[in-house]
């Protein structure tokens, strides 16, 4: 299959805001007394990362609005696919929500040979919760400018690495996109179990940037 790479990345970058969503079956709208018991919010990434933080804040606010407890549960793994697939298999009664991201609802179906779910057909999309910028953070020992960093990486191609929140996540592909943009920068990729794990690695010098 031939893909227009420029168009592909424009779609992915747009979807970063469009697909930060919660999802549940539209059948819930038919229940006149909804909600009348606690709601479970599945966060498909490990604790400590931005998705976890935003999801927990959202759960607290949603609980205040709906008047019932909204309990956050982390189901990390496979770039968010494990938690998303769990919601897909669950009872479509509106009491299990998914705090989805571009990794789970854009990249996953594009990159998976045998996807466990269809990001569009298997979910009812409720709302855009928010959007967040993608920034690259560097270890303090790195050069103070991007130009100097690139020069060092090219001079020592096996020495530098960047970390991401896992294989197939948006941060992984943002890093790969940066490498392509900079002319094929020989920067190694080290995947971690969530963004929360990559930050200590950055501060400890295990990776150069994340």
Sheet with the most strands, sense and barrel status:
3 strands, parallel
Tell me what the CATH architecture of the largest domain is: 3-Layer(aba) Sandwich
The CATH superfamily of the largest domain is Bordetella uptake gene, domain 1
- Envelope shape: elongated
The counted number of beta strands is 7
Number of helices: 7
Structural class: alpha/beta
**Helix and strand element order:** HEEHEHEHEHEHEH
Report the mean per-residue pLDDT as an integer: 82
CATH topology tier name of the largest domain: D-Maltodextrin-Binding Protein, domain 2
Q: How many domains comprise the coordinates?
A: 2
How many angstroms does the end-to-end distance come to?
Answer: 31 Å
Can you offer a commentary on this structure?
This protein has 210 residues and is α/β, with parallel strands linked by helices. It has 2 domains: 5-128, D-Maltodextrin-Binding Protein, domain 2; 146-203, Periplasmic binding protein-like II (D-Maltodextrin-Binding Protein, domain 2). 39% of the residues lie in helices and 13% in strands. It has helices at 5-18, 50-66, 81-89, 102-111, 146-155, 170-181, 195-203; strands at residues 21-23, 39-43, 70-74, 96-98, 125-128, 161-164, 188-191. The protein has a 3-stranded parallel β-sheet with strand order 3-2-4, with helices on both faces. Strand 6 (161-164), helix 6 and strand 7 (188-191) form a beta-alpha-beta unit. Helix 1 runs antiparallel to helix 4. The longest helix is centred in the first third of the chain and has 17 residues, at 50-66. The two termini are 31 Å apart. The model is unreliable at 1-5 and 7-24 (pLDDT under 50).
């Amino acid at each position: 299959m031939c893909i227009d790479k420029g168009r592909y990345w424009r779609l992915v970058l747009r979807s970063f805001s469009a697909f930060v969503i919660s999802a549940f079956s539209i059948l819930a709208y038919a229940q006149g007394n909804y909600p009348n018991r606690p709601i479970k919010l599945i966060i498909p990434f490990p604790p400590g990362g931005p998705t976890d933080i935003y999801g927990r804040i959202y759960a607290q606010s949603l609980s205040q609005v709906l008047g019932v407890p909204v309990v956050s549960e982390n189901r990390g793994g496979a770039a968010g696919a494990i938690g998303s697939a769990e919601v897909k298999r669950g009872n479509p009664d509106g009491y299990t929500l998914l705090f989805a991201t571009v990794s789970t609802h854009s990249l996953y179906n594009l990159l998976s040979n045998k996807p466990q779910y269809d990001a569009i057909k298997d979910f009812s999309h409720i709302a855009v919760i928010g959007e967040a910028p993608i920034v690259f953070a560097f270890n303090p020992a790195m050069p103070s400018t991007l130009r100097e960093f690139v020069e060092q990486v090219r001079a020592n191609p096996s020495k530098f690495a960047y970390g991401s929140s896992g294989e197939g996540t948006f941060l992984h592909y943002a890093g790969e996109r940066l490498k392509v943009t900079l002319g094929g920068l020989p920067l190694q990729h080290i995947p971690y179990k969530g963004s929360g794990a990559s930050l200590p690695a950055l501060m400890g010098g295990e990776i150069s940037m994340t």
